[in-house]
Amino acid sequence: MQGDLEIEAAELRNGIAAGQMVVYYQPKVGLFTGQALGVEALVRWQHPERGLIFPDDFIPAAERNGLMTELTDFVLDQAADQYAQWQTNRIDLPVAVNLSASSLIDASLPDKITAVCDRHGISHRGLDLEITETSVMADPKAAIAVLTALAERGFVMAIDDFGTGFSSLAYLAKLPVSVVKIDKSFVLDVVDNNADAHIVHGIIELVHGLGKHVVAEGVESQDALNLLLLMGCDQGQGYHWSRPVPAEELTAWVTKHQHAVTVAGRETGMSTRAPIPANEAKRLAVLQRYRILDTAYEALFDEIAAVAAKVCGTPMSAVSLVDAERQWFKARVGLKVAETTRDLAFCAHAIMDPAHLLVVNDATTDERFAANPLVTGDPNIRFYAGAPLVAPDGSAVGTLCVIDSKPRQLSVGQLDVLRQLAAHVIAIFETKQQLTELAERREILSQRDLRLAS
Ligand code: C2E
Ligand code: CA
Ligand code: CA
Fold it and tell me: Does any ligand 1 atom lie closer than 6 A to the CB of residue 236?
């Protein structure tokens, strides 16, 4: 917190009362899909003489002069109002508000935030809350009580500026927060600074190990984005996508970037979201254990996909894995892209019923797919048949599928071969996993032997 202009308490109080505070919004983006999953509300002071003043220059003064409550109340109210407006326009963007240490020890905070939601007629999903580890540590007992009450009411909370606070890691596991934001000081230089890269990678592993989501702040370049993707980071925020901007600009940004999906939804009047299986959490855990996502090309799987295409007489085929946000192709024949969003994936529908193949003879006459950009545009899918890849516990992690740009049908014999090949793919995943685990166990044992010998 540098800067801190010489701001008089009275001037700040007047500024708040005179409506000179404005809220800007910055998107939080899913790294795989590039789509905005939410926004952060960041306050600015539109000063009549000094121009736009940034929060680092007046928030310390607000803290010192007991004006933080007024400021937070204002931002909460704006954020809720903005979320409601976006909802009306069919844009679903939860707004995250930053809470200060003083808010966190205020036992009436959960009631206050609930009242804000009620006043604007929005669900508790609409307001997320960001807190820094430092502000929790100011009075951990009081803060945890407030956070627990908020979590019980369904508010999503994130730890902000993670990595800068020197707090005990044990607190991270105990806090009822589901998201951790890596401080931008580690991310800005992640591509060129080896130490930062190790810190960021370590935080991602740690946070995932605790079952939480991780957001990287300060993503400024495509290179940083690529590296974070490789490290398994979930979301990013930064100038690479957008600076914090006024609400109208953010709406324009979202509309532009979400265009394909939004339009597809409007044409059919149908939801464009992929369906989610009832056993989704278990299914994702099984997929994770195979450690197959984002692995290098392996000829074996392309050969299986090629056999499937040949037997079925289609120009395209794939081994597709469906994770939380996308389908990723372990193997592909005749397909240009390496992955698509989950919402566009035919395979996301095929995994809904592990016991049966999904066959779509003509996608243009199927209301689930008619407006899908993969149908209306390249590669112009008309025919699709997908055999679910079913793990021994019954979860479908993806499909072996064949695709054609002409409507068609498959014989019972062809469908049967597809099903058998899918079973082979799963058998290979299982074998690879067992081999990896065996090798790891051996490694642990030999390290123990070394220790005992020395
Ligand atoms: P923060 O919560 O860590 O917010 C993220 C800051 O990083 C924002 O600065 C944002 O503009 C900046 N940022 C985002 N992407 C990039 C990037 O790619 N590169 C770089 N260099 N910076 C990036 P901003 O808006 O100046 O806010 C500064 C801090 O002021 C915030 O840090 C937050 O702690 C505080 N703040 C802002 N609004 C509020 C508020 O309504 N209430 C409270 N309590 N604090 C607020
Ligand atoms: Ca923040
Ligand atoms: Ca931050």
Answer: no
Query: CA 314, CA 1: separation in Å to the nearest integer?
Result: 61
Domain 280-439 falls under CATH 3.40.190.10? no
pTM for the full predicted model: 0.65
Say what the pLDDT of residue 263 is.
33
Confidence at residue 446, expressed as pLDDT on a 0 to 100 scale: 85
List pLDDT tens digits, range 343-369: 999 999 999 999 999 999 999 999 889
184 in contact with ligand 1, CB cutoff 6 A: yes
Residue 347: closest CA among 302, 381, 313, 377: 381
Domain boundaries along the sequence of the chain: 2-268, 280-439
Mutate to test the pocket of ligand 1, among 29, 97, 98, 99 (most ligand atoms within 8 A of CB): 98
What is the C-alpha separation between 74 and 70, in angstroms, rounded?
6
- How much of the chain, in percent, has pLDDT values that exceed 70? 95
CATH number of 2-268: 3.20.20.450
Determine the Cα–Cα distance for residues 68 and 142; give it in Å rounded to an integer.
Answer: 18
